């Protein structure tokens, strides 16, 4: 394994909170969230106890893919405010002990980026991947005077930056090696972009499609080498900064140089099975290519925690303490926890697990109050990827209170970025702040427990006793966790006494732990 500088000490204590900026808080009444809106709501995050915020892309863009089509990496999009507004957000967050991470789209730009517009008229420009003649499979016709076609990275409007090909092919002369002029220029540009924003005061980046750089790279060896080079630079130039990857395969991405990778709904040899085996109940964002499965957090009780546990064990063995795995509740690309048949009463057990397992937790905005995935929304900025894959349902406005537009914006309802959850009983921050028995208060207590108890952190030991129902494990040899996500009662033979820290529907008597449906319990053993 390549030797890197150890991860900054603060990362082990991170509780991530992802903000989709256009949907979080609108300060100027135009219907779209902005930096000032986030700044005005920082007290909520500080009260909740999260300490690291990741913002989806906030750079100049035509927004054909919600900002993942960047037209200027060094300028913020006017709809979010100014660079001064972002600076104020970073400063005010820092005053509350909260770090800000930005989203780095490394593998492609918008077709509106000046780099691409220049490249489309200059056959000698190699920042992008161009086939000089014809239109090979997957390529898009040139929009400029340059003949031929270009390779997109996702949508056609997102031309792939040229980081080279791992394998050459005489029949495809556009395949440049990774050390060609264009790939070298793009690697240098990534350093310049990161250096700019890290100098601005942010604490690192979440990297979009991090595995997509070098093409025809089946083992990701050459892509990993790019990130290794960048990590060594980061260790020297910005040793307190971190890189989080959208890769979904920690066994590859962390040894390559990332400090953290997420278990995602895709990635790795099982195409995202570890995460999907926990949360994916066949509703919301569904890829037709996914194999049907019964997830563990489902009332039916047909799932198992074993696929997740085995993947976690395998990943952490490969990492050997060199970095971390992060476990999200959801994100802007896949369903919220509260999706389809899953109801609010099922969410406390999910958080009891997520916030006590030795991964870095990532809470998607609104999940702390149980916001719903909203079905049947229109396509918005590229949200629809398939007949059952509409990402807009996870991107609806944050629900702050019972006022107009749920406190998100003063704009007319028809000008909101996306419609609100139409349910009359939609959860809000204000209502749950006032109710100490709410999900929001539970999440806050669990975060506090995690942050004040080293055994619950990512370096604390975990001993799994049972991967069925209930899921039972011990953290740091001192704390017993019992989680029953199914609707019917479940039991496990285990004899121990302990002090209850957070319990709902779990009892221990006569050498048996009994957990009612959707019950959970966290106990300090021997207390």
TrEMBL record:
Pfam families: Alpha-amylase (PF00128). This is Alpha-amylase family glycosyl hydrolase. Keywords: Hydrolase. InterPro entries: GH (IPR017853), GH13_cat_dom (IPR006047), O16G_dom_2 (IPR045857). GO terms for molecular function: hydrolase activity. The lineage of its organism: Bacteria, Bacillati, Actinomycetota, Actinomycetes, Kitasatosporales. The keyword Zinc does not apply. Residues 18-395 form the Glycosyl hydrolase family 13 catalytic domain. It comes from the Bacteria.
